[in-house]
Specification:
0% strand, elongated, NK-Lysin, mainly alpha, single chain, 71% helix
Length: 218
């Protein structure tokens, strides 16, 4: 899964830069990068409609694939901040902002800083530069919700159901999302674009293309 790839890359980068870092320590950078990777990973999991418990469990599993000296910091962060990270992801905060708010990457203090265990201190004495790309969480919500709605509409269309029956059925299926914003977007797609969606599905256009070119959510 994507989160495993991200953490593998993170581990490789830490390992590859450790020799240089020991000569010129940059306190806090590694912890900050670790935090932002955790938030990025949580975003991917949340947008797959996983529950808080599932997201936390996957983050814990992801920590275990890191080298021992980095796994300690990862596990501490997950234990102390998983619920806050998930909450802020649902509030559409970016990874940089989340990690500032939990006082790992600096910024205004909102909560107590991370506990200084030996595992934490050893990793916080490492650091490396990493370029982060802009992330629009609302756009990702829209795309996931649209894809879900259109694929379900498609399944009903293939069964030859009437449009008003499809609209009612998929509206109920939107309620399966755990995330309120995703439910709202899903229902909006269904009620505002059902006729257009069915029209283009009958032309054998893919759900991905319909969401991108007709609903403009991907």
């Amino acid at each position: 899964m994507k989160f495993l790839v991200l953490f593998t890359i993170l581990a490789l980068v830490f390992s590859a830069t450790s020799a240089t870092i020991q000569k010129q320590p940059q306190v806090g950078n590694a912890a900050c990068d670790m935090c932002e990777y955790l938030v990025h990973t949580a975003e991917d999991l949340v947008f797959q409609n996983m529950s808080n418990t599932q997201v936390t469990r996957y983050l814990q599993t992801a920590c275990k694939i890191l080298p021992t000296k980095y796994a300690g910091l990862c596990e501490v962060m997950v234990e102390q901040y998983a619920s806050q990270i998930i909450k802020k992801v649902l509030e559409f905060e970016t990874p940089a902002v989340v990690c500032q708010q939990i006082q790992i990457c600096g910024g205004q203090k909102e909560v107590e800083p991370i506990v200084k265990t030996p595992a934490v201190e050893s990793v916080q004495n490492l650091g490396h530069h990493h370029h982060h790309h802009h992330f629009n969480p609302l756009k990702k919500f829209e795309c996931k919700a649209c894809d879900y709605a259109v694929k379900h509409i498609e399944s009903h269309v293939m069964r030859g159901e009437a449009i008003h029956d499809i609209e009612r059925a998929v509206d109920l299926e939107c309620d399966r999302f755990d995330i309120h914003e995703a439910i709202h977007i899903c229902k909006k797609v269904v009620h505002e674009s059902i006729n257009k969606i069915v029209e283009h599905l009958l032309k054998h256009e893919s759900p991905e293309r319909v969401c991108k070119e007709q609903v403009h959510m991907c």
